Amino acid sequence: MALKVGDTIPDGILQYVPYDPNESLEACPRPLQYKIHEKLKGKKAVIFAIPGPFTPACSENHVPGFLRAADSLQAKGVNEIVCMSLIDGFVMNAFGKVSGNKGKIIMAGDGNGTFTKALGLTMDATKGGLGIRSKRFAMVVDDLKITYIGVEPAPGVTVSSADAVLAKL
């Protein structure tokens, strides 16, 4: 069962690599732990999930939309923007670099899917050879409480888009 508005997000640990403007595109630093409750307690955050880095909708629409909207989200009180995927932190770091992220978004991996499962937002993409993935979604979390959640009912980026999130702030 997926969480709903008013619920407290579960605690969990993601993997991320902090942005370093001096890091080369080829660098492969070890990811650090992103402890969700520790990092987001007392903050307003947007967490959005992509089913797969380097896939068309994620690369061409979902992540670029949040990169373009990062300043507008911050102007509306968002302290952290977290993009997550059910993949490791190494891949999310590389995806962030290729996407031109430059530290606007925390690119985090949920390698074992523990957090995504706790959210109730996994999907089975084994027919397409992709295994278990995260559903595409976006949520606004204020001091660990969900104030908006948009889970895509079908392929595409609508209720989980940066514009949809901005409209709810």
From TrEMBL:
One of its GO terms (molecular function) is thioredoxin peroxidase activity. CDD domains: PRX5_like (cd03013). Residues 3-169 form the Thioredoxin domain. The active site is at C58. GO terms for biological process: cell redox homeostasis; cellular response to oxidative stress; hydrogen peroxide catabolic process. Pfam families: Redoxin. Keywords: Antioxidant, Oxidoreductase, Peroxidase, Redox-active center. The keyword Hydrolase does not apply. GO terms for cellular component: mitochondrion; peroxisome. SUPFAM superfamilies: Thioredoxin-like. InterPro entries: PRX5-like, Redoxin, Thioredoxin-like_sf, Thioredoxin_domain. Belongs to the peroxiredoxin family. Prx5 subfamily. Thiol-specific peroxidase that catalyzes the reduction of hydrogen peroxide and organic hydroperoxides to water and alcohols, respectively. Plays a role in cell protection against oxidative stress by detoxifying peroxides. This is Thioredoxin-dependent peroxiredoxin.
